[in-house]
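Lab manual, section 2.4: Encoding a predicted structure.

Procedure: take the sequence of the chain (412 residues), apply the prediction step described in section 2.3, and record the output as structure tokens. A sample record is shown.
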Amino acid sequence: MEPRPTQGVPRVMDLRGTYKGGGGPDKTVLNSAAQHDPARVYVLVTYLRQPNDHEFQIPEMAKKLGIDYVDLCDGSTVDLACLRGLTALLDRHQLEVVHAHDDKTLLYAYILRLMRPGLRILYTCHSHAVHRSEKFDSLASYLKFRARQKLQIWLMSQYLRPVITVSNDTRDRLVANGLDEAGVAVLHNGIDTTVWQRAGSTPVLRDELGIGEGGLLVGTVARITPEKDLGTFYEVARRVALELPAVRFVIVGDGYGDELERARRDVARLGLEEVVHFTGHRNDLRDVYVSFDVFLMTSVTEGLPNTLLEAMALGVPSVSTDVGGIPELLQDGEGGYLTPAGDVEQLSLRVLELLASVELRDRFSRQCRERIEQHFSFGRRVRFMEDYYHWFAGVGGLPRPEDAGRALGHAF
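Recorded output:
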């Protein structure tokens, strides 16, 4: 792939490690590249690909979007061949800014700058988990987690400011862990409402799960990891099914390894096989979301989740824990409900309340869509990111976070 002629504009490597089909940050990276103005910025989307990942689908997504894309095999903690490939891309495409998005690319960007001292590094922090020691199976695991967090903060502190975060909550966590508040800026996630709309979508899961006319389906879209707290999801399903025996729950997503199979075993052990269903990874997410009567999120930590953005854009009434940046997106009593993390009783009551009233679901559906349209425009987010690229490349002024908030319509 040869570089395009882009005189006078920043040249950026958008660098991301990934997992199988991709998650929320992947959608942000790929869709941003598709919407960037080539007269303002050149972006080469670059992915690190695990050698044993046989379900990797990012290239197909990138091809459909028509973006400049490349991926490199990354097979170890510090893969020297991968780093050599990255430096070759920097040189071949005359890239001057690396935009990192996760732990691995945070580290690799630092090493790349050591190899190419003039390189500018921009880091977007999509989430910064907070876990107490009792959430770990051993003290050693907890200490490893804390050491990794300290390394993350140190690496962030080595880069040109600001670090970009996707929510006020994530910003506050970074500051609490040692970053200077003046060096952290918030640019909320957004979503393309011309793509994420109900028109043309088909509720495929209702047929797949045998849910007939009048049947009810509560669903979530989530990677199967501890922070999603699926144990609480199962307990909510059990309690709701006691009141409404015909209701079904579904979890759409996979894990990093054998988490999906272990989750299925957990549900079988609880005797909930007829209530809680798993689909594994899906690419037809619009059709998945419009299958739900209610979207349920039981996470104990989040940044600003793309899954909730997607559900709300498609008008799915939502019940969620009030963690991370979620209250910045979903307002309690308007489009859905918020409850404390782990509060099975409140989560169950709110789900039952929504399932009991078609009128309430219809009203919340309209409010969800309106909230997204008015306050979470993806196009405006892309324009602000272009301004940040100009700043990091040294050819523009620093965007003001308060301007980004006003442009996106936020009032936090």
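Check your result against the sample. The radius of gyration is 21 Å.
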